Amino acid sequence: MLTIHRVRAVRPVVDRPGHDGPDDDRPGRDRLDDDHQDGDRLDGDHPAGAGYAVVVSGDRIAALGPYDELFAEYGARARGREWDGVLTPGRYEPEGAALLEAAYHPDPREADALGSEPVTGEALAALDMTETRWGGSARRGLQRLMAAGTTALTGPFRRPAVRTAVERSGLQELDGRIPRALVVGAAAHFAVFAEDGSCLATALHGRLVFRRR
Q1: What is the 3-state secondary structure (H, E, C) of 166-210?
Q2: Which residues of the chain have pLDDT under 70?
Q3: Do 34 and 55 touch, CB atoms closer than 8 A?
Q4: What was the pLDDT predicted at 116?
């Protein structure tokens, strides 16, 4: 199945040296329609009004470039999606292990007793945490990460239930912050961010795992 995702702009590379700080990691910082080095742009001479796009075939990136050119080639065969934002390889979470194994993400049905924010420290120690409960917590924590545009995180994950949840989520588990890029032929991991930095959509292996309603 082919899908063409139309966006305002694309930031094809993240976590490069000099671009992995909190300021430069803002979605949309490096755009194809901004002035930056040639290695960061797909088509610097193309007018930005038509937007840009990524074409996904199955779980892989099939094409990346100006929207009108890709629509002319793939539009008749592809399902179309439009996002009013900047498409990037997504966010990287270096504290993945702490977020999923040193915090409990309450079930919505526990909101009256535990609230909706992660439970840590002494409050966590007071809970009866079985492997089943850790697994449910990890799945909810992963959903929160993907809703923030996270496509990669770092472990290691030592609790079996948490490790299983991470593996099933499709998130990339990395040893550390490394360059990640949108490349034709690579796995289709990406996120789209609005101007305010909020996440509009997250895709892993070509499948939308989050989209703003």
Answers
A1: HHHHCCEECCCCCCEECCCCCECCEEEECCCCCEEEEEECCEEEE
A2: 16-49
A3: no
A4: 86
- What average pLDDT does the chain have? 85
> Three-class SS of residue 62?
strand
Counting DSSP H helices and E strands in the chain, the numbers are 6, 14
Sign of CA dihedral 138, 150, 171, 180: negative
> Do residues 27 and 79 touch, judged by C-beta distance below 8 A?
no
Residue 92 has φ and ψ, to the nearest 5°, of -115, 130
CB 37 within 8 A of CB 13: no
CB-facing half-sphere around the CA of 101: CA atoms within 13 A: 17
Residue 122 CA, distance from chain mean position: 31
pLDDT value of position 16: 55
Query: Per the structure block, which two tokens stand in for 7?
Result: 């966006």
